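INTERNAL AUDIT FORM
Audit reference: QA-55
Scope: verify that the stored structure record matches its stored sequence.
Auditor: D.O.
Record contents follow.
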Amino acid sequence: MNSKLKNKLSKKSRLNKIKQQLCNRINQCKSLKELEGWKRTFSYHPVLKDDQDWDYDFFFDLIEFKLKRMKEYFHTHNIVVDEYIYGDICNKLVNILNAGYRTDIILDEDLITKVNDRNKNRFLNEYEINFISKCPKYYYATIREAKAKSLFWKYLQHKIEWLWD
């Protein structure tokens, strides 16, 4: 048997083993709450299937996914009337942060143009400023990302506890 076929068979057998383990865990559920937990876990599959531990971009994908779910839930159940706009703000900031890494995000035209760089020292150190000054193509995008990152974490720090309450 050639090595490609052997490798393909071993992948298939590993896949079947993992499927069987998941089915066994689900079949062992003794309550509706446990089954709902598995259902919720599988709903995260689109985000987690491409997850990598080495890149913070995947962390922002997870946050974006969770914020969208929270917004939909609270908006459809009329739990929050006006405050759901805070989730929109966080989503926009996450999109700015992801724009440099993901190709499926297209920034609005106003985000491609210049950004206020007078206060760049608050967000970037001297070495970073000198480095991006040599790369005009990435100058405003880097400042925009640094500002969005700072604002996102401050925003979550101040609003997360009552974001949807």
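Auditor finding: record pair retrieved intact. Residues 3-27 form the longest helix (25 residues).
Action required: none
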